[in-house]
Amino acid sequence: MVYNPFSFIESADVGAIALEGLEAAEAPKLDLSTLPDVVVSSTTLIDFSATPNVVLRASVSLALLYASRVATRAMKPEDDEDDWLARYNQALSEIGFRVSGYAVAHSTFKKKNVAVHKAIIPFLTIAFGGAAVGPIILQALKNLQEMDADAPWITLFDRESRRFNVNEMHFAAVSSNDTETTIRYAVARLNVESSEVRILFFKISDVSAEFESATTTMTCDNGLLAALEPKLKAKLISQIDDRISGAEV
After folding, report:
1. Which residue in 10, 19, 161, 193 is a FRET match for 200, CA 20 to 30 A apart?
2. What are the transmembrane regions (predicted)?
3. pLDDT tens digit string along 214-224?
4. What is the DSSP letter of 201?
C-alpha cells in the first residue's frame, strides 16, 4: 500500500490537549529551531545528541507528538496499552517512517530495593545498541537522584507516561547521517501498584519487580522529514509549545 503522508497529516484527528496540573511557568515556550539535546515530546524522552540538524530535531519531535495524539484519539473504551502502541507505530508509518525490528520481552529485576531509573539503565543500554547511543538519557538516569524531582521535564514526562493504569516510560535515541534519520525506540512498562505519579523515583520491591519492554527501530528519509516539518507544525502549532519542554541535563 502506498501512503500519502501529507494527506494523513491533514486528515488526522489529534484532538485537544488538556494542560491541567502544570503551571504556565513549568512549560516554557520553545523555539522549534533551537531544540536542546534532550526534549520531552508527549510520552517520550528524546535524545538528540547525535542529530545536530535543527530541522530534523523539530520534525522528529513533531512527528512523535503527532503519532501520540493520533493514537490517543483513536482509542476505544475496550482498548489497552498494546492497542495504543500499535496505533502509534501505524501513525508513524502513515507519514513515511519505516518501523522495523519490533520485539517484546518480559524481565524480572534481580536486585530488590533499587530505584526504577537505575534498574532500567542496563535495559536501555541494550535497546539503544550500546552506551554510545542515547548517552544523555543514560547519563541523566544515572544522575537522577541528584536532580530536582520537581523539574518541569520530569513532571511532564512522568505524568504523560501514565495510561491505562499502566506505568510506561518511553525513550528515543535519534541519530542521523546525510540521507536518513534513525530512531531507536524503547518502552519500559512496569507493574507497579501505586497512586504516585513519579514512577522514575519508585523502588523495586518483591511485589513490583517485573516489567515488560518493547524495542523497535524507526527510520525516515531526511528529505521527507524536512518536508513534513511545516505540515506537522501547522497541524500542531497551537499545542506544541505546551507539550515539548527542554530538559536541563
Report:
1. 19
2. 119-138
3. 889 999 999 99
4. G
Total of domains in the chain: 1
- 184 found inside a domain: yes
In a domain, 188, yes or no: yes
CB 185 within 8 A of CB 171: yes
Question: Can you read off the three cell numbers belonging to residue 144?
Answer: 537522577
Largest separation between any pair of C-alpha atoms in the chain: 50
pTM: 0.74
> Residue 45, exposed/middle/buried by CB under 10 A (0-12, 13-18, 19+)?
buried
b/e 100-118 (16+ beta carbons within 10 angstroms → b): eeeeeeeeebeeeebebbb
Q: Is residue 136 part of a domain?
A: yes
Here the CATH number for the domain that contains residue 193 is 3.40.198
Q: Domain limits at 137?
A: 35-241
